[in-house]
Specification:
374 residues, alpha/beta, six-stranded mixed beta sheet, three-stranded antiparallel beta sheet, 12 strands, 17% strand
């Protein structure tokens, strides 16, 4: 997840979608490294510590991180580091060692990071247009929309873009699966994104009466922002039918919120692996010309549990390896369809499909055991 008025909000969201790992990685892949000197290391360290004390969601943890980093400086641990990339990775590891916060990262950028007015944190017109084109190019995160055998809908959804840009794509995808008897939503490669898009997609799975999904507490202003389902949506709602959400240990941030929302509200069955464990939204900040950082400035609060999934992840209802999750969900959907149908011919077709799916799933499990034994 990300704070909505971030300087680099669009780039942060895009990174989450491209990497499908964490909201902010160590910079673009394969970028050239840079040699840094003692003055640069000093500038970055002081900038990082100031930003943490000014903005990190838990001020007391920010102080602990400062103490730990200054102790490493005193022990001269960074003095021999001349690689910008390695320095950023080391700082990230050392900060996370104290905070256990997977969103918190220092990044190196081969391209100079532009200076922005702290008060003007909205993306520029050019950045918005660039992000819009990027969103269109990857279909706003919708990788695949299918109708599986047994009349089961399938959405392979890999990231939550801004709802203004992606709303039509969401409506089209949900309309396509609207006549299916059950729906599988694949979050296994989803690294997060915009919480407003999380709310929009969730809205299609509930009725018109607004449902409180999640809240975000922000340190700045000591305020809490609530996210609810929408009274109206432009596509067809998917109500009163079974929904399955697939997860992996790469499911992160906003994708975890989506999974947690549906789990706690008992709207979906979560199948797969425990998710990555990142529940702290935040902002990207410029630290130096070639260094930035993502600082969690808020935390998620479930209206049901009053907690979040930071550090623990979202535990699935049915735990299975990620590469077994789709087959498991498909089989479960078909088995439920067999129980519900009164059409004997259809029942027979569904039973045969279920038997085939069971054989395929058994084969997957057998192959996994064989590979593990080698």
């Amino acid at each position: 997840m990300r704070k909505l008025n971030s300087i680099f909000a669009l780039a942060v969201a895009a990174f989450a979608l491209v990497s499908a790992q964490h909201v902010l990685a160590q910079g673009p892949p394969n970028q050239p490294d840079m040699t840094i000197d003692a003055a640069t290391r000093r500038q970055v360290i002081e900038g990082v510590l100031k930003r943490l004390n000014d903005s990190y969601v838990f001020p007391e943890v920010a102080k602990k991180m400062e103490t730990a980093i200054r102790a490493r400086v005193e022990n001269k641990e960074y003095e021999q580091m001349t690689s910008a990339s390695a320095f950023a990775q080391s700082l990230t590891a050392h900060l996370q060692e104290v905070s256990r916060d997977k969103h918190l990262r220092v990044r190196y950028s081969a391209d100079a990071i532009p200076v922005r007015d702290e008060k003007e944190r909205e993306p520029s017109v050019e950045e918005r247009e660039r992000f819009r084109r990027f969103g269109q190019r990857i279909n706003y995160g919708f990788e695949r929309v299918e109708r599986l055998p047994g009349n089961v809908g399938y959405l392979d959804f890999r990231g939550f873009f801004d709802p203004e840009g992606g709303a039509e794509t969401v409506a089209a995808a949900m309309s396509f699966v609207s006549n299916t008897d059950a729906l599988i939503i694949d979050m296994r490669k989803n690294g997060g994104g915009d919480p407003r898009m999380v709310a929009l997609v969730c809205s299609y799975l509930f009725g018109s009466e607004p449902v409180h999904l999640n809240s975000l507490y922000w340190r700045e202003g000591n305020r809490t922002e609530e996210f609810w389902t929408h009274k109206t949506v432009s596509g067809k709602r998917y109500e009163n039918k079974d929904v399955y959400v697939l997860t992996s240990n790469h499911t992160f941030s906003g994708a975890e919120e989506f999974s947690n929302n549906l789990k706690t509200l008992k709207r979906a069955t979560i199948i797969g692996e425990t998710t990555g464990g990142g529940a702290h939204p935040g902002d990207s900040f410029r630290i130096a010309e070639h260094f930035g950082m993502f600082v969690p400035t808020g935390r998620a609060i479930s209206p049901i549990t009053k907690t979040n999934w930071e550090g623990t992840g979202v535990k699935p209802d049915i735990e299975t390896p990620a590469d077994h999750a789709l087959k498991t969900a498909h089989l479960l959907a078909v088995q439920k369809a067999v129980e519900k149908t009164t059409d004997e011919r259809l029942k027979g077709d569904l039973k045969r499909l279920g038997e085939n799916l069971q054989k395929e799933l058994d084969e997957l499990k057998k192959n996994q055991k064989t590979s593990a034994g080698k």
